[in-house]
Write a structure and sequence with these properties.
The chain has 407 residues and is α+β, with helices and mostly antiparallel strands. The chain has eleven helices and 21 strands. The longest helix is centred in the last third of the chain and has 24 residues. It binds adenosine-5'-triphosphate (ATP).
Length: 407
């Protein structure tokens, strides 16, 4: 593990309690969000045509009419014989291929998510899309960035995660009235097994996912949490996890994530609210989830280990798809949602339908050869946009100061 990472602790849900924040005791104006249902915020990013696609003179089939709309044209439906089709989708924000990493940071809504996490909300940003569509690029940066010996302190390539870390630290420094403690964990779900990326061990022993009755959500037992007093500590967590996660190569991506990863920053803040020693502690968090890409194994030409990985990836994404489809249907959302059918959906259950605030980034390729995957991603994203969550702040009162550093 990197020398930067100092103290560690394990997850415990003992001290958690949650309730709707409606008393107006917050300094900021998020009460409206916590009192009402909130839709999942869905944005789309189209990557540019790749060198391979350009070499094959592939046309782009997506265009951007404005106002969060995206038009996909000139594709054939599977088995369809009625000529090329077109379909218009509408999202909260759509990023064209020329968009920079900074544009995504500024206009995706992630800044708001971080602010809410610092206020005690459970927030999630997850990237969804076919293999090679730019999920890892968007969240962390181009492949290879974390395999170089010397990683640049900051560059235009840095993705949403590092930019969010910088924003969070600035925010924490500005709030002199609060005492903040930050911790982080980083895991992957590989072939349905949860592996701690900060402490994988030589045998990569899987961790259990359990249900917490108190917090009413799933959590990973014995997951390492690292204290992050400085920006460098969070950067060290990111680098360590990126080095340990499982990647592989196939026909559509040389550096393909073979697992779903989840990097979580836990933000605890404490504020004295009365002279006689009453303190309020809030516990928010932000999850950055890089889903492995859906893949058509015929196109990726996967075989052996890569095929087994692809089958596991597709299976867990299918369960996620069922959950999203049920949650987006007003008739089905009160019924049974199959969260328990995969580790991924267990860990995302709170973000999808519980008390969290969620930003989904759907990544697409503009190339004609990827038309059916692009349409399928956009349909998935359009469904997710209909899901409602009911965000609550996780907080508790204490009469005496709690020494947060000992958490
Ligand atoms: N917006 C972009 N601008 C420039 N290059 C990009 C962009 N998005 C993706 N790429 C490049 O495309 C390739 C595939 O991207 P990436 O590995 O992020 O895809 P992915 O969706 O995470 O794939 P997988 O699901 O297989 O892990 C990488 O070389 C990446 O740098």
């Amino acid at each position: 593990m990197a020398g930067k990472m100092k103290e560690t602790s394990k997850y415990s849900d003992d001290s958690l309690s949650s309730f709707n924040e409606s008393t107006g005791s917050l300094n900021r104006s998020y009460n409206d969000i916590s009192e009402h249902e909130n839709g999942i915020y869905v944005i789309v990013r189209s990557r540019p045509l790749s060198t391979k696609e350009n070499r094959a003179s592939e046309p782009s089939i997506v265009s951007f009419p404005g106002n969060g709309r995206i038009l996909v044209e000139g594709f054939q439906t599977i088995g369809g014989s009625n000529g090329p089709k077109s379909k218009l989708f509408s999202f909260n924000v759509v990023f064209e291929p020329a968009s920079t990493q900074e544009d995504i940071f500024q206009y995706s809504g992630i800044k708001k998510l971080i602010e809410m996490a610092a206020e005690g909300f459970n927030t999630t940003c997850f990237c969804y899309g076919q293999t090679g569509s730019g999920k890892t690029h968007t969240l962390t940066g181009p492949p290879g960035m974390f395999f170089n010996k010397r990683i640049e302190p900051f560059s235009a390539d840095h993705g949403l995660v590092f930019r969010s870390f910088m924003y969070l630290f600035r925010l924490v420094q500005q709030r002199q009235d609060l005492h903040f403690v930050l911790k982080a964990s980083f895991l992957e779900i590989y072939n349905e097994k949860v592996i701690d990326l900060l402490n994988p061990g030589t045998v990569r022993k899987p961790l259990d996912v359990r249900w917490s009755r108190k917090a009413r959500n799933f959590y990973v037992d014995n997951l390492f949490m690292v204290d992050c007093e400085e920006l460098d500590d969070l950067q060290a967590v990111l680098e360590e996890g990126m080095k340990n996660r499982t990647v592989g190569s196939h026909n559509m991506n040389e550096c393909s994530s073979r697992s779903h990863t989840m990097l979580t920053v836990y933000i605890t803040s404490e504020q004295q609210i009365s002279e006689d020693g009453v303190f309020i502690t809030k516990q928010g968090k932000i999850n950055f989830v890089d889903l492995a890409g859906s893949e058509m194994t015929k196109k990726t030409m996967s075989e052996g280990k890569t095929l087994e990985e692809a089958n596991n990836i597709n299976k867990s994404l299918m369960v996620l798809g069922y959950c999203i489809a049920s949650l987006s249907d007003p008739k089905k959302r009160k019924g049974h949602i199959p969260y328990r059918d995969s580790k991924l959906t267990k860990l995302l259950s709170d973000s999808l339908a519980g008390t969290g605030v969620t930003l989904m980034i759907a990544c697409i390729s503009p190339a004609r050869s990827n038309a059916s995957e692009t349409i399928s991603t956009l349909r998935y994203a359009a469904r997710a946009k209909k899901i409602k969550t009911k965000p609550v702040i996780v907080m508790f009162h204490r009469r005496f100061k709690v020494f947060l550093d000992n958490y």
